[in-house]
Every structure is written in structure tokens, then in C-alpha cells.
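To: structure subgroup
Subject: Chain for Friday's discussion

All,

I'm putting the inputs and outputs inline so they're searchable in the archive.
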Amino acid sequence: MAPSQAAVTTPSSRTFDPALRVQIQDPGTRLPALWRSGRLDPEQQKELLLSLIRRVVLARPAPETVEVSIVWVSGAVTRRPVQAPVGCRMSPRLAGCTT
């Protein structure tokens, strides 16, 4: 098996306790409460998010805006605009900027 495939198909060495596994079986309704509960350490939060996200798409509809689209494994899409820094004050190393 190629190294890139091994990384994708190898299960995580970390496991969730049985009570936690029940909570994450229906993440749509329980995820916010589970997140706030403190029962997941940061590594578990990261693993859980990675299992729920199919891909992230970035678009730049305007110079000062980046649109972030999260495509979830369910097929739902969440879109959020993010203000991106432009100009010399935020990025002084850009061509034509003086410090």
C-alpha cells in the first residue's frame, strides 16, 4: 500500500470511551453540548472535526474578502465571509510597500 493511502486508511490509535461514543453518534443535535462539556481534549476535538468535514473551499470574491465554504460529510455546506487584510499596513512585505 502506498504511504499516502496508509495515512488515510489507518485508524486512529486513540479511542473514545463508550459513553462518549454514544454522544457522538448523533452529532448534529449533540455536538454543541459535547463541545462545551470539556469531555473532549483538543486532539479529540480535532479528530472529530476532521471526520465531519469533507473539504474546505476558499474563494476571493473581493480583494478584502475571503469566502470560506465548509463541505460537511452529510453534503451540507456552511459559508462564511472572512475579512482579509489588504494593503501595506497589514502586509508590509508586499511589493511596493515601504516600512
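Points worth raising on Friday:
Residues 15-83 form one domain.
The helical segments are 3-9, 18-24, 27-37, 42-52.

D.
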